[in-house]
Amino acid sequence: MVVKYPAYPLVIATSNNTFVLDKPYQVENVRIPAHYESDGLTLKIRLFRLIVSKYAPKFMPFFFIHDYLCDKEKYTLADDLGEKVLFNIEKSFRTKTMIFLVRKYHKIKYGV
């Protein structure tokens, strides 16, 4: 069964190349408060630059849910829920590669 997530988050672009939630955004049981700020795709893995643009609006739901949960140090939940959100937007070789690399990064860096 494919889970359809809520509409895209309402965001405000900042002069610092970040996005701020205009209203709270909820995916499943995770509620991200208004005014939460995301930098889009955090490019700690340089290969990501070849896969997806750091600011691709299409992937905004993934950016917010993943950044928020990682800020809370809930890396496994961030990866699991992030994968659902990402594959709901687009299930392709590029998104599969992206989530694979994110999970590997978290495994190496945080052991989760």
Topology:
Elements (H helix, E strand, L loop, with lengths): L10 E3 L5 E3 L3 E3 L2 E3 L4 E2 L9 H4 L8 H12 L3 H15 L3 H18 L2
Antiparallel strand pairs: 1-2, 2-5, 3-4
Strand content: 5-15%
For the largest sheet, list the strands in their spatial order: 1-2-5
Question: SSE string, helix = H, strand = E?
Answer: EEEEEHHHH
**Helical content, roughly?**
40-55%
Number of strand elements: 5
Distance between the termini: 27 Å
Question: Average pLDDT, to the nearest integer?
Answer: 84
Number of helices: 4
Uncertain runs with pLDDT below 50, 5 residues or more?
A: none
**Helices and strands: which structural class?**
alpha+beta
| Shape descriptor | globular
- Major sheet: 3 strands, antiparallel
What integer value in Å does the Rg equal?
13 Å
What does this structure look like?
This protein is of the alpha+beta class and 112 residues long. 44% of the residues lie in helices and 12% in strands. It is built from four helices and five strands, in the order βββββαααα. A three-stranded antiparallel sheet has the order 1-2-5, with helices on one face. A two-stranded antiparallel sheet has the order 3-4. Strand 3 and strand 4 form a beta hairpin. The longest helix has 18 residues, at 93-110. The termini are far apart.
